[in-house]
Specification:
Blueprint lengths: L2 E9 L4 H16 L4 E8 L6 E8 L2 H9 L1 H11 L3 E10 L5
Antiparallel strand pairs: 1-3, 1-4, 2-3
Helix pairs in contact: 1-3
């Protein structure tokens, strides 16, 4: 079953350019992962420093592989997370018609 992640990241406006650049690099690298089905990065309209991410993987194991990737640690854990003032993440299974 496909596995989705919806994340909202918030940073100070002064850190917005750094977070944006890192997120775009993560998007590029994640889309090349074998289990990745979608990875979209959005800047929330009229809310400086606010980003919405939508990720979809073939299954939970695909997401776990994403978290184990070198670029996840370098760009998300080490670059982005220290700059965030708040982070909200929802994990979901993608519903399929039976």
């Amino acid at each position: 079953m496909a596995y989705a992640v919806i994340a909202r990241y918030f940073c100070a406006p002064a850190d917005e350019a750094t977070v944006r650049a890192a997120l775009l690099k993560v998007r590029e690298l994640t889309r090349a992962e074998p289990a990745n089905l979608a990875y979209e990065v959005h800047a929330e309209a009229d809310v400086p420093g606010s980003f919405v991410l939508y990720e979809q993987y073939a299954d939970r194991a695909g997401f776990d592989a994403h978290k184990a990737a070198e670029h996840f640690d370098e760009l998300i854990v080490e670059t982005i997370w220290p700059l965030l003032t708040d982070r909200r993440v929802t994990f979901a299974e993608v519903l399929q018609v039976s």
